[in-house]
Amino acid sequence: MRTTSPNGPSRRVMLGALAALPTLPGLFGAAPARAQAVPLPSWNDGPAKQAILDFVRATTDAASPSFVPPEERIATFDQDGTLWVEQPMYTQLIYCLERVPAVVKARPELANVEPFKTVMSGNQQAIAMLSTHDLEEILAATLTGMSVDEFNAEVKKWLETAEHPRWKRPYTDLTYQPMQEVLVYLLANGYKNYIVTGGGQDFVRVYSQIVYGIPPEQVVGTAGGTKYGYDKDGKPFLTKEPKLLLNDNDAGKPEGIHMMIGRRPHAAFGNSTGDQQMLEYTKAGDGARLSMLVLHDDAKREYAYGPAQGLPDPKVGTFTQALYDEAKKQGWTVISMKDDWKRIFAFA
Amino acid sequence: MRTTSPNGPSRRVMLGALAALPTLPGLFGAAPARAQAVPLPSWNDGPAKQAILDFVRATTDAASPSFVPPEERIATFDQDGTLWVEQPMYTQLIYCLERVPAVVKARPELANVEPFKTVMSGNQQAIAMLSTHDLEEILAATLTGMSVDEFNAEVKKWLETAEHPRWKRPYTDLTYQPMQEVLVYLLANGYKNYIVTGGGQDFVRVYSQIVYGIPPEQVVGTAGGTKYGYDKDGKPFLTKEPKLLLNDNDAGKPEGIHMMIGRRPHAAFGNSTGDQQMLEYTKAGDGARLSMLVLHDDAKREYAYGPAQGLPDPKVGTFTQALYDEAKKQGWTVISMKDDWKRIFAFA
Questions:
Q1: How far is residue B143's CA from residue B140's CA, in Å, rounded to a whole number?
Q2: Distance from CA of B262 to the nearest CA of A (A)
Q3: Cys bridge to B66: A242, B3, B120, B287, which one at CB 3.0-4.6 A?
């Protein structure tokens, strides 16, 4: 399925994987394990693990000058590349591309209209060359125009059958076990964990509870408007509209945090330039603050891109050398997947 | 201070109350009492109290066909007129009018520009005649253009000194004790309470925790954008912008609930046409749902307006006869302040 293109792996498409796979009925049944006798068991001892332990001690010990009252303990996590795999492209974009056949079936007039025609052709090289504007059209056509309930049902169904091309597992299996442990450790210490993603807020909310133990109301993401209306029986419902309310990337992250949470986080985790302002904003608060960047430098167990000089950066969010230098300058802690993590996934 | 005008009491202004009053240092220290041996002690027995008790039993008894898992227990409350007094006008508007002198001091060129000139004149009759457009200009000038931290500090300071003209108490004392008991009762039964207000989200968030035990992240309101930037030392901060992101009234309430919470409430409480869609949307969900409307029919202990035929409706939100009829038709429960509430305020 993999095709080399000037745009790099972020544009590779895996159409058709859906139909070939059995459903995984267990996916929406179980919650992630929560017990953790020793904190952060999948982390190697080192500065990254120590920074997390020190931060939690400083903010939860009542005798500490940096003590934070429980109600103010907010931690924010980027998702793609920070909590789970974002290669070969971010999961929501794969969902949107794989939804195109259903959209064209419902609206046959799109079959001969670009960019839908290209997606329907199955020509991976051509799909990989689609422009940002083309992708935006595909996102709008596949993420809007249906009711909120219909959208939620579609995403849930897709997640039960879709799988990642490399690991041949559901995308929801591809969360980083060490980051799951950070979520558990912070939760156990009174922190309220939020996902603050450049991806779609409604998309991530479908699975945030079962995948991360984070309820939908603690997911902040790129969000479109909805329109309130009534069906033929007079029953009210919300329709997803192609109107952008929040672009939750870059400066949009602290702005979205203010809008949706109303407090400055004490800890923030990211992996790309799209997270820079969230990490700055977090670190600029009083007292002990933790800003961390996940560096993808493990081509063997996951991927290497950004300053690790492996794969090109994925389209959404990039980890540049400038960001790496900024982290060093600002006192953010860089997490090396290769050196700091004993294992990457729960299944491996 | 009261002036009769064609626009009714909602436009009456209480400029100057600020300076004359002592500060109330206790305001931001204590949390509301939480213990409640018998549920809803300030409610008279009757259909309204019974509807709340029945709803909680139906949704929290694991043997009930309408059982709701704890993580899905969401209750939403309008604020002005539902949780606290909205006469002679809603509190945030009083704040904005009383902030005008400070704005004019900082920007002297506004002193001779309408509508600021009228507000500065202190002519209560003229102030009561200001148009909606004038008021919007006043809201923009007093709620935007400063940093989020500056705004929060200003509101907090104002609340410590401002007082209601009738009861001569801080506005934060004027919450309805029976509704405080509903908040406590639902919280004790696993519900997450949200304020969903047509008022300003940032304004209400300043005091929601201490007044209602509701943290800022559980306040949804009319919200403007913020802009991320840096001060002269390179420290990032957010500036409140005059750009409307969410008009949290009417259809904006269910739309805002979707944006900020992502779940349909199981219970909703309102008092005006601005709450109608929230009550409809809540009631339209599966299983047991509770939609309630507070009717202001107690001129002696509070106010009588709307179908109770007393004062005219306040400008923001109205309780019309049509809304009352809709409540009866849709199976929403109307709460009569006169008949259902033993007392209105904790202090009385």
A1: 5
A2: 6
A3: B287
